[in-house]
UniProtKB/TrEMBL annotation:
One of its GO terms (cellular component) is DNA topoisomerase type II (double strand cut, ATP-hydrolyzing) complex. The active site is at Y117. Residues 843-894 are annotated as: Disordered. It comes from the Bacteria. Residues 451-499 form a coiled coil. SUPFAM superfamilies: GyrA/ParC C-terminal domain-like (SSF101904), Type II DNA topoisomerase (SSF56719). NCBIfam families: gyrA (TIGR01063), PRK05560.1 (NF004043), PRK05561.1 (NF004044). Its EC number is 5.6.2.2. This is DNA gyrase subunit A. Residues 29-514 form the Topo IIA-type catalytic domain. It comes from Tautonia sociabilis. The gene is gyrA. Belongs to the type II topoisomerase GyrA/ParC subunit family.
Length: 894
């Protein structure tokens, strides 16, 4: 019957699809588990079959190619030998899989000698990849003619895919995985075992980036992070160079490392074309000074009078000395091509190793149980040797002897005596395997020494069986074995990183993508020095310890603010001119625990004479929160927090100011909060935040308090509603102050004259500053003369509003108090000090936003202190009662 005609279009589609899948699965792409293409895997297996172990001798490559082609890879020597040679070339492989002897080519571009001249054997790391292959760790499949079997994948103890990388072009897809440093890969795998939820930034703390065998310099981390995050990226790789100045005024640019997969022959030809073609005119000569000790040394001589840095930039622009490596992390996963992120590659490798170790352990358990079963029979026979000999001698042939031995009943008592095990239980008569082992016993095994060896072997087998069963019952033990293997590999084979990773980013990139989002402790001193450092710096200490210093400050300066924020959070800085500036936490310099930090004014684009007078950390610009600002002349303005979410480097207007006025305080408020404003002449007003309607950024605000002639505002705090349990600490110029419960300040209408907060007289002087405090807080008072006193708030008596207060610090006649600062918790003299404060702040940051209720804005920092006074607090002094003043509001003005 004739064959029906075929549609040529359908036939071509089907045939090409089959061809494409064959190329993808069987030729061009590596397996994610062992990182090998089929041809590479077959060569290594064939070399193992030939016994070419690392400790043995080498064999002709022609024989290796022939064995590979005969058994596994019938595609001709033209495809096998180049693959074999590449695995022996140091400039292509980060860790060689084959140890070659003879001419295997060079980085100059010379090809390997013919395979009849070269010899090879497995390298130590290749032997690691093949380890345990005979222990039923991987599946085997028939070879092309079904005469032999070949492994589908190698056990892969060595993480080859990332360490050596891979490159290949399939049909419609390609893979290009860069090599990496073995030690870093092992560390990243261990980190993933220890923390399965680790993020990319955490992995990159261990695996910094590609590490090419030819060295070079990777420009920036953005391309690396994109490749690790998505599986695709572009890495700019530059040659490593040195500039040598000559006595005759000329310069040498010496290149000692070149980009990956660039040959010197190609490089020298391109450089010659650039010079001869007039593209680069400042070069007088290009010489190759490479030798056996230094495989790459290309010397470019710069003409006299030319700038070598200009020539260098031209070389990077026009020559292969700067190249782009396209990362495509494509590999086979369960026989299907997939583009993988870094964490996926690491996880799939660990999953493979878990399967390998589990299968190996199951195989070892079967073998141990079978051997233990046989040894049990031998020990029983030795214990009852007379009976065994009688049975054997009275039997007509081995078959009868075997049957009679298998008919012997073994009781629990007999088994316990034979095995010297009180817990042994008989499972029935001797088995065929035990009977065969007894019949095969030699007479020398009847000696006492041999009997002891059998007993020791049985004991060891029982221990092994228990260990194997424990491993199979607990996957954590499997990961412990993987962790131990990785650490052993790192110790035995890892070396120093060859490729440098510079901070210079080329092209457009997202800076924030390079910064890991993690918590940081930010500290700001009274004199305006700021820094950040990891919370782990403040290690936990036992109760009763001495604590640790949070920072080392200049004389007369002290730590005033501390908070915990994420690296991507904002800090808003407010200036005396009513402007606000942004700074990301990651832009704050990271410094050591005892370092002073960097001046805030050096981090912001301030105008001439402009001062930073306050700050506010912001994690999120939420819609239901506002900023309440207060000026020295009593104006307040409430603006939605979201109005400040679009940063500009030069800052933006936070509020409009009249001439001669300045911003003195900023607080973060929400519905239900109260605002309390205090003046220099001892007046205070408290009102609900809702009394001030929300305005735009550039508005001037409304009247917050009606000031008497010559009076001015000195501070503002935010209270958590009418029942806030905190108190108000008021400090006067002559060193007096007092603490009053916030509940004593009744709520009034905004714009009134307020109530008497403290009686200001010649004795205590005008008010300098206020602070919202609790009994457990500590405060720092600074004087114009540079003296500082630190005192606990609980030592200041809680008294009424209209009093003169008590002495907080003794002053010289010509001295006065200049500022008040509430210390953050880490400055308190508790046993755990900073560590406890940071732990509390982190706990708070994990569930809600953590920011101060308000930010007291201090005057310029005092001059350095000549000495520090430690003065006690005197008794509270009586004062006359003064009636409250009625509020007298004024119309709002904008």
């Amino acid at each position: 019957m004739p064959t029906p005609p075929l549609n040529i279009e359908d036939e071509l589609k089907e045939s090409y699809l089959n061809y494409a899948m064959s190329v993808i699965v069987s030729r061009a792409l590596p397996d994610v588990r062992d990182g090998l293409k089929p041809s590479q895997r077959r060569i290594l297996v064939a070399m193992r079959d030939l016994g070419l172990s690392p400790g043995g001798g080498t064999s002709k490559c022609a024989g290796i190619v022939g064995e590979t082609m005969k058994r596994y890879h019938p595609h001709g020597d033209n495809s096998i030998y180049p693959t074999l040679a590449r695995m022996a070339q140091w400039w292509n492989m980060r860790h060689l899989l084959i140890t070659g002897q003879g001419n295997f080519g060079s980085i100059h571009g010379l090809p390997p000698a013919a395979m009849r001249y070269t010899e090879a054997k497995l390298s130590p790391v290749a032997a690691e990849m093949l380890e345990d292959i005979n222990l039923d760790t991987v599946d085997f499949q028939p070879n092309y003619d079904e005469k032999y079997s070949e492994p589908r994948v190698l056990p892969g103890k060595f993480p080859n895919l990332l360490v050596n990388g891979s490159g290949g072009i399939a049909v419609g897809m390609a893979t290009s995985i860069p090599p990496h440093n073995l030690g870093e890969v092992c560390d990243a795998l261990v980190a993933l075992i220890d923390d399965p939820d680790i993020d990319l930034h955490g992995l990159m703390e261990h695996l910094h980036g590609p590490d090419f065998p030819t060295g070079g310099t990777v420009c920036g981390k953005f391309g690396i992070m994109e490749a690790y995050r998505t599986g695709r990226g572009r890495i700019t790789l530059r040659a490593k160079y040195e500039i040598e100045e000559l006595k005759d005024g000329r310069s040498h640019i010496v290149f000692t490392e070149i980009p990956y997969q660039l040959t010197k022959e190609t490089l020298l030809k391109k450089l010659a074309d650039l010079v001869n073609g007039g593209r680069i005119t400042g070069i007088s000569a290009v010489d190759d000074h490479s030798d056996r000790k230094q495989p790459v040394r290309v010397v470019v001589t710069v003409k006299r009078g030319e700038d070598p840095n200009v020539i260098l930039n031209q070389l990077f622009q026009y020559s292969p000395l700067q190249d782009t490596f396209s990362v495509i992390m494509l590999a086979l996963v369960d026989g299907r091509p997939r583009t993988l992120a870094l964490k996926e590659i690491l996880r799939l490798y660990l999953d493979h190793r878990v399967v390998v170790i589990r299968r190996r352990t199951q195989y070892q358990l079967r073998q141990a149980r079978q051997r233990a079963h046989v040894v049990e029979g031998l020990l029983i026979a030795l214990h009852y040797i007379d009976e065994v000999i009688r049975v054997i001698r009275s039997s007509a042939n081995p078959t009868e002897a075997r049957a009679r031995l298998m008919g012997l009943e073994v009781s629990d008592q007999i088994l316990r005596r034979a095995l010297d095990s009180p817990d042994a239980k008989a499972t029935g008569p001797l088995t065929r395997n035990q009977a065969d082992a007894i019949l095969a016993m030699r007479l020398q095994q009847l000696t006492g020494l041999e009997a002891d060896k059998l007993a020791d072997e049985y004991k060891k087998l029982r221990e092994d069986i228990a260990r194997y069963e424990a491993i199979l019952a607990d996957e954590r033990l499997i990961y412990d074995l993987i962790r131990a293997d990785l650490r052993e590999l790192k110790q035995k084979y890892s070396d120093a990183r060859r490729t440098e990773i510079s901070s210079e980013e080329l092209g457009d990139f997202d800076k924030e993508a390079l910064i890991r989002e993690e918590y940081m402790v930010v500290t700001i001193t009274n004199a305006g020095y700021i820094k950040r450092l990891p919370p782990s710096t403040y290690r936990a200490q036992g109760r009763g310890g001495r604590g640790i210093a949070a920072t080392s400050t200049r004389e007369g300066d002290f730590l005033e603010h501390m908070f915990v924020a994420l690296t991507h959070d904002y800090i808003l800085f407010f200036s005396d001119r009513g402007k606000v500036y942004w700074l990301k936490v990651y832009d704050i310099p990271e410094a050591g625990r005892t370092a002073a930090g960097r001046a805030i004014v050096n981090l912001l684009q301030l105008e001439e004479g402009e001062r930073i007078t306050g700050f506010l950390p912001v994690r999120q610009f939420v819609e239901d929160e506002y900023l309440m600002m207060c000026t020295r002349r009593g104006t307040v303005k409430k603006t939605e927090l979201t109005a400040f979410k679009r940063p500009l480097g030069r800052g933006i207007i936070a509020l409009g100011l009249d001439e001669g006025d300045e911003l003195i305080a900023v607080g973060r408020v929400k519905a239900g909060d109260h605002v309390l404003i205090s003046t220099r002449q001892g007046m205070a007003i408290r009102f609900d935040e809702s009394d001030a309607r929300a305005m735009g950024r550039t508005a001037h605000g409304v009247r917050g308090i009606n000031l008497e002639e010559g009076d001015e505002v000195v501070g503002m705090i935010v209270a958590a509603g009418q029942d806030d349990p905190a108190s108000l600490l008021t400090v006067c110029e002559r060193g007096y102050g007092k603490r009053t419960a916030l509940t004593e300040y009744r709520s009034q209408n905004r714009g009134g004259k307020g109530l008497i907060d403290i009686k200001t007289t010649d004795r205590n002087g005008p008010v300098v500053a206020i602070a919202k405090v609790t009994e457990d807080d500590e405060v720092m008072l600074t004087t114009v003369g540079g003296n500082i006193i630190r005192t606990r708030v609980g030592d200041v008596s809680l008294i009424g509003r209209n009093t003169q207060g008590v002495r907080l610090i003794r002053l010289d006649d010509d001295d006065s108090v200049s500022s008040l600062a509430k210390l953050p918790e880490e400055e308190l003299s508790s046993a755990n000090g900073v560590a406890d404060a940071v732990a509390d702040a982190l706990a708070e940051a994990g569930v809600s936003e953590s920011s101060p209720d308000s930010v007291a804005i201090a005057p310029p920092p005092p001059s350095p202190a000549d000495h520090i006074l430690n003065d006690g607090v005197g008794p509270a002094e009586a004062s006359d009662h003064v009636d409250d003043l009625d509020a007298d509001g004024e119309p709002d003005r904008e």
